[in-house]
């Protein structure tokens, strides 16, 4: 038994044991698995504390230093946020705040990289960034200054373009443009702009043709999520411009059947 424990005959022994075991359990659950495995058989908190102090002092110093660094990083992220946030709402939600951010990033507010940044933050509402969203995005990008954020946009674009991420980004772009509560569809004009922004650089011939069709057709005034995802699937899977592998029996949205019919009729 550790020398700091009361004698077995001491009336304080049983209360001491209860507290000792409670604190031991807390300490063991508070350290890494590697450390816990080497101290789990110790009988008292004194033994355990001395062991940690002598054997793992360096690890605890590094852990404390990393925690302090993370705290400073978060402080800088918050300071950057409040340099753009509105005093009244505590969010980045004013045109001036968004324009100032885009100006400092040297991107236009209509640049697809702004949408990618919103995706990284998982911003819920178009034109609004909350502190929690900002923290999540910038910590993920390891950016706590505007200079680091500018550089991070280059890597973010590569991250978004990976096939494993792009489908999620593409569907997010649609949801991000649902500006009204319970809104489930987007008007044709806005969809054309969004298609050009999100898919135009990768599927220019398909998107140009699709936008042309959407602007002249009269059957649809709005586009829903199913149709939106169908556009992406069409660009990915269908041979263009010959459309040789397009099969209308494969449950494509009707608007795409009509689009293909329109393309074929143009070719005669």
Overview of this protein structure:
Residues 72-264 form the DCUN1 domain. Pfam families: Cullin_binding. It comes from Rehmannia glutinosa. This is Defective in cullin neddylation protein. By secondary structure, this protein is mainly alpha-helical. It folds into 3 domains: 13-55, no CATH class; 70-161, Recoverin, domain 1; 173-267, Cullin, PONY binding domain (Recoverin, domain 1, Orthogonal Bundle). It has 13 helices and 2 strands. It has helices at 13-30, 33-39, 45-55, 57-82, 95-105, 112-121, 131-141, 146-161, 163-176, 188-199, 204-216, 225-237, 254-267; strands at 185-187, 222-224. It has a two-stranded antiparallel sheet with strand order 1-2. The longest helix is centred in the N-terminal third of the chain and has 26 residues, at 57-82. The mean pLDDT is 87.
Question: How many angstroms separate the termini?
Answer: 95 Å
Number of domains: 3
Number of strands: 2
Report the principal-axis shape: elongated
Structural class: mainly alpha
Give the ordered list of helices and strands: HHHHHHHHHEHHEHH
Segments where pLDDT lies below 50 for 5+ residues? Answer: none
Strand proportion, as a percent range, falls in under 5%
Rg calculated over all Cα atoms: 29 Å
* Sheet with the most strands: spatial strand order: 1-2
CATH topology descriptor of the largest domain: Recoverin, domain 1
Instruction: Find the CATH superfamily of the largest domain.
Output: Cullin, PONY binding domain
Identify the CATH architecture of the largest domain.
Answer: Orthogonal Bundle
Level-1 CATH class name of the largest domain = Mainly Alpha
Rounded mean pLDDT is 87
Helix content estimate: 55-70%
Biggest beta sheet attributes: 2 strands, antiparallel
Pfam families: Cullin_binding
Protein name: Defective in cullin neddylation protein
InterPro entries: DCN-prot (IPR014764), DCN1-like_PONY (IPR042460), EF-hand-dom_pair (IPR011992), PONY_dom (IPR005176)
Domain DCUN1: 72-264
């Amino acid at each position: 038994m550790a020398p700091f424990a009361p004698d077995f005959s001491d009336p304080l022994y049983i209360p001491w044991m209860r507290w000792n075991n409670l604190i031991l359990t807390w300490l063991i659950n508070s350290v890494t698995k590697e450390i816990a495995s080497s101290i789990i058989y110790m009988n008292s908190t004194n033994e355990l504390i001395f062991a940690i102090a002598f054997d793992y002092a360096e690890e605890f110093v590094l852990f404390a230093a990393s925690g302090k660094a993370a705290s400073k990083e978060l402080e800088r992220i918050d300071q950057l946020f409040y340099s753009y946030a509105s005093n009244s709402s505590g969010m980045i939600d004013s045109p001036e705040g968004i324009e100032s951010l885009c100006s400092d990033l040297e991107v236009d507010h209509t640049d697809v990289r702004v949408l990618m940044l919103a995706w990284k933050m998982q911003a819920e509402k178009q034109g609004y960034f909350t502190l929690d969203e900002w923290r999540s995005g910038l910590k993920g990008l390891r950016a706590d200054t505007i200079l680091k954020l500018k550089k991070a946009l280059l890597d973010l674009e590569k991250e978004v373009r990976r096939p494993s991420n792009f489908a999620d980004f593409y569907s997010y772009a649609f949801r991000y443009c649902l500006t009204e509560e319970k809104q489930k569809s987007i008007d044709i004009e806005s969809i054309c702009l969004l298609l050009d922004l999100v898919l135009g650089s990768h599927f220019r011939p398909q998107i140009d043709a699709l936008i042309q069709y959407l602007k002249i057709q009269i059957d649809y005034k709005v586009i829903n999520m199913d149709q939106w995802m169908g556009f992406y699937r069409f660009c990915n899977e269908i041979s263009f411009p010959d459309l040789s592998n397009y099969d209308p029996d494969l449950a494509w949205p009707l608007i795409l059947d009509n689009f293909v019919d329109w393309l074929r009729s143009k070719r005669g």
